[in-house]
Automatic annotation (TrEMBL):
Pfam families: NERD. It comes from Aquibacillus koreensis. This is NERD domain-containing protein. Residues 37-147 form the NERD domain. InterPro entries: NERD.
Amino acid sequence: MLLKTRSESDELLTFRYLSQRMDLSEKEEQYYLSLERGYQGECKFDEWLETRPTGGLILNDLLLEHNNTKFQIDSLMIRHPKVYMFEVKNHEGDYFVEGDRWFTRSGTEVKNPMIQVRRSETLLRQLLQTCNSNLHIESYLIFINPEFFLYQAKPDLPIIYHPQLNHFFEKLKKQPQHPNHRHMKLAQKLLDMHIHPSPFSNVPSYKYEDLKKGVLCRVCGQQINKINRAILKCPTCNHVEGLDKGVLRTIQEFQNLFSQKKLTKSSIYDWCNQTISDRSISRLLMNNFHCVRGGKNTYYELDRMNEEIKRQIE
């Protein structure tokens, strides 16, 4: 049973929007791409897990804290008599291990992900004890990318490679599981402890006046043109998008990047680079947001974008 779904972090969304509206440094670009790869890998694992009913309680993307130390868990499964903790990596290419040190095939040293797994497991065990839970924890490092290979790794490491996923699932099904109200209570406690928004962020500084304005193509990132009252078309890649969908998506970007700014008709007109009529913008704001009337100072509540709107722009 899936109790907590996964979604892009605020950090990833901000980087995604900024990457199209400003020039990132090489270091910032590499960091952003690593966030995208990591999220895509986690989603692939979610898809794999969702197609194989386990009878367990699944919580994705948890940020928890114990003894003033925060730790992140990609996926957690409560399945009696154990708690399974999964750390998902989307690495691609050849790597090798020497002792506790990990390297790419070219010899560049990278962080040892097992250190993160062990640290998170220790903190989770201590946290569960405070919840009066004695469930045993099994932790696994999942390499979800089929194009990944690790040389010289010890066979006893708790690592599951892409070709081993099905075998792992079959092994899991053979183990007894009887989730009860105590497991559900524990899951709810962990959900209540989840920290949001995350205090960690490496987003670069940016200013409104320095960012590219306009409704940008969701495919190639170039400014998209209005064809008629209902259609937008990218002159670069010819991607076509409904006007309402494109503008709502652009409003969402504004909301994410400038949460402290009031959402007004004039602010969105300027953010769209004055390419969308103020009548269309006014209609979309009135139909989809809570209007706080104040004459010339009328604005719209940023936190009222509902789930229906989010589905429209996905």
